[in-house]
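Entry 0007
Protein: Protein SOP4
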Amino acid sequence: MRALLLAFQLLSVVAALTTVNCRLDLSPRQISRKDLLRTHLRLYQVGNFSGQPYSAKATLRDPEGRFRFEDLPVSHDENSTVYFQLVASSQDYNLKPNRVLIEVQGRGEGKEPTVRAFQNVFGREHFPSPEILYPEQLVELEAEPELVISYVHAAPMRNYIVSRRSGILDSGPLAGIFRSKYKMAAVVTIIALLLFPMLVEKFDPATVEAIKEQRLSQTREKYAAVGESNS
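Output (structure tokens):
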């Protein structure tokens, strides 16, 4: 009989299971398959706990960006509070909030536990209470019916391969010419002046012959005028 009573008492305080519903909001953009693959969501238990700590990863469930963490261990005891840390990251966006402290408090037998969320900051991931002023009190977020995570702006481009030696087009005199539109215009003009006679001779030989005859006649007239002045 005592064994049955002890078992009943243990069942009254044993951990129940609850779910935290969340949503990733990228509006006005639509969530694509790329966002599904490049967004990482993790929830783990912090604070005082017994046994194996809870840890889980979630993925976006639909194009609306909904995701959830299931089977969170909580207690029926009214004085029992369990804390979890939600970490959200993306390879394409800076998410806000990217760290959320989730508080699950039991309300007694037959009642759903109360879920609260607080915007956490870097360096406070393992503080198990939002009331610790280090360095400031955490801001409470709306957790019902779902916790919403949005984005600040697109993340900067990540250079996974960095060239140690730059080429001649990245540094040096040639790079300076290519970066300046005025220098480029001067170079193109000089090249055009050098190539123009050859192009004309190739595509219009008659015009080239006429130009040569005109220059030759001008030279003859010049020498003829010089000879008359000497005589």
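Curator remark: The chain has two domains: 14-151, 173-229. The radius of gyration is 39 Å.
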